[in-house]
Amino acid sequence: MNRSALHRLLVAVVVVLLVAAAALYVLSVTLAPGGRDVAGLFVGYAWGAVVLAVLVGVVDFFVRSSGSRSHRGER
Questions:
Q1: 27 alpha carbon, distance to own chain's centre
Q2: 54: helix, coil or strand?
Q3: Contact assessment for residue 18 and residue 48, using Cβ atoms and an 8 Å cutoff
C-alpha cells in the first residue's frame, strides 16, 4: 500500500469515526428521557470516537507529510 492509498484510508476512517460520534450523540439525546445512565454511556462512546478520530488524523498528518518529503515529484 503506497502512502497516497494509506492517506485516503486514514481520511475515510476519520470521516467514519466523526459520523459515528455524531450518531452516538444524537442517540444519547433521544435516549435521555429513558435514563440518564444510558444517555451518559452513549455520550462517552461519542467522545471516545472523537478522540480516536483526532488520533487517526494526527497519524495521517505524519503519513502525508513524510510521504511528500520522500517523493518530491509526487503530489
A1: 18
A2: helix
A3: no
DSSP-assigned letters across all residues of 26-50:
HHHHHHGGG-HHHHHHHHHHHHHHH
Place of cell 469515526: 17
pLDDT, tens digit, 9 for 90 and up, residues 3-46: 888 888 999 999 999 999 999 888 888 877 767 777 888 888 99
Q: C-alpha cell of 21? A: 460520534
**Grid cell in block for residue 1:** 500500500
Residue-wise pLDDT tens digits, 39-51: 888 888 999 999 9
The model's pTM is 0.75
Angle between helices 36-70 and 3-31 (to 10 degrees): 170
